[in-house]
Amino acid sequence: MSMTPVEAIRSLLDSGRPLILDGGLGGELDTRGYDISSPLWSAALIASEPEAIVTLHRDYLDAGAQCITTSSYQASVTGLQALGMNPGEVEKLFKLSVELACRARDEYLRENPGCEFRPLVAASVGPYGAYLADGSEYRGNYGLDDARLREFHQQRLRWLDDSGADLLACETMPDLQELRVLAGLLQSVSTPAWVSFCCRDADHLHDGNGFTRALELFVDHERVFALGANCCPPALIEPLIANIVAANSGKLIVVYPNSGQQYDADGKHWHGDSELQHWSQQAEAWFAAGAGLIGGCCSVGPAHIRELAARKSWHC
């Protein structure tokens, strides 16, 4: 009998190795010359440049990633319908994001028949702030009521839950109110999910609420198998892990920081000094501290994932 995705991850961790995640999608596609300047960011390429997305997924797999995340982060029903898509077309685009990742995974497995671990596909569920395309995932505090947030997330969660993805990646979540709504909606999914928070420091979400309050929403959540943080500087990861461990949730821990640079929402680019010089070495400390799923976010590309996957300590 084959293992479930979560059982497969736990088995890998029991062998003394982390699950290696992929890196960023939008920024990497930008460096490859694709236009991601629209409010949909990389999601705009799902229909217009599907081969570019498949190629990038495949590059991450070839680099050693054992879990790839779909290009649906910035996709939303509201945003896609504003471009003239009807509901059927919107649903197809969400599911196509998963199909592209699965296709890259299937191609990889055909060419690597002796692969020890069957790579997983995680369907990305971004925050409401991603739809706004103005950097709101680094602020939170959207000024909406619960009903509006529920409406925003509900339909796309249903589609992605029914898409054939192995996991749901609810990521870059900066807002406690949104997280309360999401916790309720996740009670109804059948696909195991991780929830990854977007934090201003080790103790606070970007909306100013305490990190511990956010963790408490999911400590006993039956559909959430992992908690963590992403799109924060690498230097924040260890103290964030310590706070997750202190919550005593029994959940796995997922971390995938960005390069440590700052995002310019007006210019839609990252600037400042990168903290990736010793990133893969830092990842060993994250693993020792309790993180089991480790990868990268914005400005982290296939070369960084290759370096991470090649760490000798993972292969002892």
In total, how many beta strands? 12
Biggest sheet overview = 8 strands, parallel
Structural domains: how many:
1
Strand order of the largest sheet: 1-12-9-8-5-4-3-2
Return residue spans where pLDDT drops below 50 for at least 5 consecutive residues: 263-273
CATH structural fold name: TIM Barrel
Class from helix and strand fractions: alpha/beta
The first-level CATH class is given as Alpha Beta
How far is the first residue's CA from the last residue's CA? 28 Å
Quick check: average pLDDT? 90
Inertia-based shape: globular
CATH superfamily: Homocysteine-binding-like domain
Task: Describe the protein.
The chain is of the alpha/beta class and 316 residues long. 42% of the residues lie in helices and 15% in strands. It has one domain (20-315): Alpha-Beta Barrel (TIM Barrel), CATH 3.20.20.330. The strands form three sheets. The chain has an eight-stranded parallel beta sheet. The longest helix is centred in the first third of the chain and has 25 residues, at 87-111. The two termini are 28 Å apart. Residues 263-273 have low confidence and may be disordered.
